[in-house]
């Protein structure tokens, strides 16, 4: 009789352990076609100013004004948002940043339907408007502010 009670407890324990371990090892994978994308927008003053506006509308509340992940909404998250100034973040390709911004992962929402003119991003490119490229260019400026 006791074995009938022990077996469900063992199965439940294993299931919980596997679920927790798979959650811990959930890397943010970027498809290869995005990894190799180059930003077609030159990082000039106009692009950076435009990117700053987009950032202020969609990113600042979690990532903060300085991009260090200390925005006012970050306190409600299980994991702090990424610090854009860190070399590990800045070493990512433009395409990887594009993918992460527009598709999201776990607590990071995807902005594919929120940021204007992002339809082409779903097809694996920066699109015909400057918005995606401007945003990536602005995020790159946080490396210089460290």
Give a short synopsis of this structure.
The chain has 7 helices and no strands. The chain is mostly helical and 146 residues long. It starts with a helix and ends in a 6-residue tail after the last helix.
Explain this structure:
The chain has 146 residues and is mainly alpha-helical. The protein has one domain: Cytochrome Bc1 Complex, Chain D, domain 2, CATH 1.10.760. It is 47% helix and 0% strand. The chain has helices spanning 2-24, 32-35, 45-58, 60-63, 87-90, 94-103, 131-140. It is globular. The termini are far apart.
Total DSSP helices:
7
CATH superfamily: Cytochrome c-like domain
Q: Provide the number of structural domains.
A: 1
> What class would the helix/strand composition place it in?
mainly alpha
Task: Spell the H/E element sequence.
Answer: HHHHHHH
Distance between the termini: 64 Å
**What is the fold-level CATH name, i.e. the topology?**
Cytochrome Bc1 Complex, Chain D, domain 2
Low-confidence stretches: 17-24
The geometry reads as globular
Q: Approximately what portion of the residues adopt beta-strand conformation?
A: under 5%
Biggest β-sheet, characterized? none
Helix content: 40-55%
What is the CATH top level name? Mainly Alpha
Task: Please tally the β strands and state the result.
Answer: 0
The whole-angstrom Rg is 19 Å
Q: What's the architecture in CATH terms? A: Orthogonal Bundle
Average pLDDT for all residues: 80
Topology diagram in text:
Elements: H1 2-24, H2 32-35, H3 45-58, H4 60-63, H5 87-90, H6 94-103, H7 131-140
Descriptive labels:
7 helices, 146 residues, mainly alpha, Cytochrome Bc1 Complex, Chain D, domain 2, globular
């Amino acid at each position: 009789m006791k074995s009938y009670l022990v077996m469900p407890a063992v199965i439940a324990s294993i299931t919980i352990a596997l679920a927790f371990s798979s959650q811990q090892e959930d890397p943010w994978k970027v498809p290869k076609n995005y990894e190799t994308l180059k930003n077609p927008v030159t990082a000039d003053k106009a692009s950076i100013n435009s990117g700053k506006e987009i950032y202020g509308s969609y990113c600042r509340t979690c990532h903060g004004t300085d991009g260090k992940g200390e925005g006012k909404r970050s306190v409600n998250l299980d994991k702090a948002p990424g610090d854009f100034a860190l070399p590990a973040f800045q070493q990512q390709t433009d395409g990887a940043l594009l993918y992460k911004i527009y598709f999201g992962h776990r607590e990071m929402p995807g902005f594919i339907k929120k940021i204007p003119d992002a339809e082409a991003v779903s097809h694996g490119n920066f699109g015909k408007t400057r918005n995606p490229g401007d945003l990536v260019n602005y995020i790159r400026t946080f490396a210089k502010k460290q």
